[in-house]
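Input sequence (88 aa), recorded before submission:
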Amino acid sequence: MARPVVHWSIVALDPERQRSFYADLFNWEIGDGPIMAIPAGIGGLEPGPEGHIQAGANPGVSLYVQVGDLRSTIAKAIALGGKETIHP
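Predicted structure, token format:
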């Protein structure tokens, strides 16, 4: 089941690779175009939020996603090649 997002913005060296990563991680069907829609997710009555994946020299993510179990989602992200970073 797709996981709902509040807002998202991704800057990547390889936008298509990042698109594939997040589609696999959260089971998203990411729309095309400069502003990309994703499904609303669990119990969502409204369409999913929109955001974008864009090329940039300073990769970064602003992503707010509701998940059923945080630890298992982080473990899956690591298995897909992501990293867990803890900020003070």
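Checked by second reader. The longest helix spans residues 15-26.
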